[in-house]
């Protein structure tokens, strides 16, 4: 997932930076530009709060349930601010807030299990679980609240405290969320810090941070891992994807077209696990392209606060330039836009939803994560050819297989080299399931009990049997 940052507003400790409305391309508010040397006090307070927070699991459960209630109560204000700074349609912002509250409730009721080890020795051995300490959560701009909750909910439930840093492109809704959560959580258990680099690098390398959880681009993820390595902190990295959808030769194109379209274009394509390339049987390729192009031509693109909007703008100017660049390169290399293909006239960071055909398989729009409203559709002549192509990038977050024969589709899905495979749908996750990528898509596991245990360490107690 690409991450680039806005320009800093000059100043020192009282500095602030502008936050831009992507629907207009103009600043509409500011956020504090906190300095790296301010983190010592923040992390120290987080460490002090950890002592009491880790000691009372029942109080944590009550507090996290109260936090979920508080998020829902503030839902209208959070949703409008999230749409204003991120760009997504208001209905999607409400869905993100609902997911944030649901995640808090899920982890509030999840507890680690003590395990007795029976191995024939004359001792009782018991595995218990202890929290790690202050956790750094560094969050991107595509789902600021939902991805923040995916990090802080399991960390808090496990008994850790959290220092949360949102992207400088989307700091405002996260700051508001922090204020909302403060009504339910003890002081300094969750702290939101905002600013541009090197704030994130300093947070990741802080010697009192014991776990760094980050979502963003591969290069930044590598930098985060290096920074965390200085203090041997644990890392969880979700570094984006280039998910392939493989369509089998028994598909009903009309039946799957809507699901396939929204699997690629939800949140203007700015989803780590979105479909980012489609492989269709050669005899059905033209039909698939046409079906997707027709849906592009009928979808309403506009400001997220407009109730008729289904697709909003790209979130920020650097990402818009990235989408434009990979599309123009593909077209220059011989691809054809069956729909879209260019930036839209007028204010804001709008790019026409685009379906590309005749795309060279080595084009960056195929081999890299474009992270925008552009979808290449490529033909294949044999299933082995399709699977080699689907597995042929450095990413391995998710993938999907689409077909009428579900047993056959599942057998094909089993050949995908990724962390999650879907059949006849894509990018749908349960709170109870693990979420992890392979290859360049990440390190560690989020979601479900696995996400909870990722924020804990084992503690083994041995005692002799009764003598």
TrEMBL record:
> Which catalytic residues are annotated?
238
| PROSITE patterns xref list | ALDEHYDE_DEHYDR_CYS, ALDEHYDE_DEHYDR_GLU
Composition bias (Basic and acidic residues) maps to 1-16
Q: Which InterPro entries match?
A: Ald_DH/histidinol_DH (IPR016161), Ald_DH_C (IPR016163), Ald_DH_CS_CYS (IPR016160), Ald_DH_CS_GLU (IPR029510), Ald_DH_N (IPR016162), Aldehyde_DH_dom (IPR015590), LUC3-like (IPR044086)
Give the UniProt keywords, A-Z: Oxidoreductase
Q: Does the keyword Signal apply?
A: no
* Chain ranges of the Aldehyde dehydrogenase domain: 15-452
- Region Disordered, residue ranges: 1-35
Pfam family of this protein, just one? Aldedh
Q: What highest taxon heads this organism's lineage?
A: Bacteria
| Keyword Ribonucleoprotein tagged | no
Gene Ontology molecular functions: oxidoreductase activity, acting on the aldehyde or oxo group of donors, NAD or NADP as acceptor
Family per record: Belongs to the aldehyde dehydrogenase family.
Q: Which PANTHER family match?
A: ALDEHYDE DEHYDROGENASE-RELATED
Any idea what this protein is called? Aldehyde dehydrogenase
Q: Which organism is it from?
A: Streptomyces griseofuscus
Higher taxonomy: Bacteria, Bacillati, Actinomycetota, Actinomycetes, Kitasatosporales
């Amino acid at each position: 997932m690409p991450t680039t940052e806005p320009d800093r507003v000059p100043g020192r400790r009282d500095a602030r930076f502008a936050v831009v409305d992507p629907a207009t391309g103009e600043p509409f508010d500011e956020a504090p530009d906190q300095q790296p040397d301010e983190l010592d006090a923040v992390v120290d307070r987080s460490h002090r709060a950890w002592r009491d927070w880790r000691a009372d699991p029942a109080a944590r459960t009550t507090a996290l349930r109260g936090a979920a209630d508080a998020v829902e109560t503030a839902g209208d204000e959070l949703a409008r601010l999230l749409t204003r700074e991120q760009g997504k349609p208001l209905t999607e912002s409400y869905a993100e807030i609902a997911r944030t509250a649901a995640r808090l409730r899920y982890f509030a009721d999840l507890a680690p299990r003590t395990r007795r080890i029976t191995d024939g020795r004359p001792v009782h051995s018991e595995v218990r679980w202890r929290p790690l300490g202050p956790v750094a959560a560094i969050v991107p701009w595509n789902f600021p609240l939902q991805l923040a909750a995916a990090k802080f909910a399991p960390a808090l439930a496990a008994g850790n405290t959290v220092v949360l840093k949102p992207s400088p492109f989307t700091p405002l809704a996260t700051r508001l969320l922090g204020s909302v959560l403060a009504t339910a959580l003890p002081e300094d258990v969750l702290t939101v810090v905002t600013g541009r680099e090197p704030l994130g690098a300093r947070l990741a390398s802080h010697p009192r941070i014991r776990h760094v959880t980050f979502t963003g681009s591969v290069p930044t993820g590598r930098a985060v891992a290096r920074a965390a390595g200085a203090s041997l902190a644990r890392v969880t990295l979700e570094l984006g994807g280039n998910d392939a959808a493989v369509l089998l030769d028994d598909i009903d194109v009309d039946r799957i077209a809507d699901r396939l379209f929204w699997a690629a274009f939800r949140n203007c394509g700015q989803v780590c696990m979105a479909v980012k390339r489609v492989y269709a049987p050669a005899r059905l390729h033209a039909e698939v392209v046409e079906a997707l192009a027709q849906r592009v031509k009928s979808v309403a693109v506009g400001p997220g606060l407009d109730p008729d909007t289904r697709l909003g703008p790209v979130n920020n100017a650097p990402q818009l330039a990235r989408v434009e660049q990979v599309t123009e390169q593909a077209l220059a290399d011989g691809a054809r836009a069956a729909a879209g293909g260019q930036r839209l006239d007028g204010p804001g960071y709008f790019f026409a939803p685009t379906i590309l055909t005749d795309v060279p398989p080595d084009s960056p729009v195929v081999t890299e994560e474009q992270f925008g409203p552009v979808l290449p559709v490529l033909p294949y002549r044999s299933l082995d050819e399709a699977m080699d192509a689907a597995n042929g990038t450095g990413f391995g977050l998710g993938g999907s297989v689409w077909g009428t024969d579900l047993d056959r589709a599942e057998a094909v899905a089993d050949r995908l080299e990724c962390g999650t495979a879907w059949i006849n749908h894509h990018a749908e996750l349960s709170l109870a399931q693990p979420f992890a990528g392979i290859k360049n898509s990440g390190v560690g596991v989020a979601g479900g009990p696995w996400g909870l245990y990722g924020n804990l360490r084992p503690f083994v107690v041995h005692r002799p049997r009764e003598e």
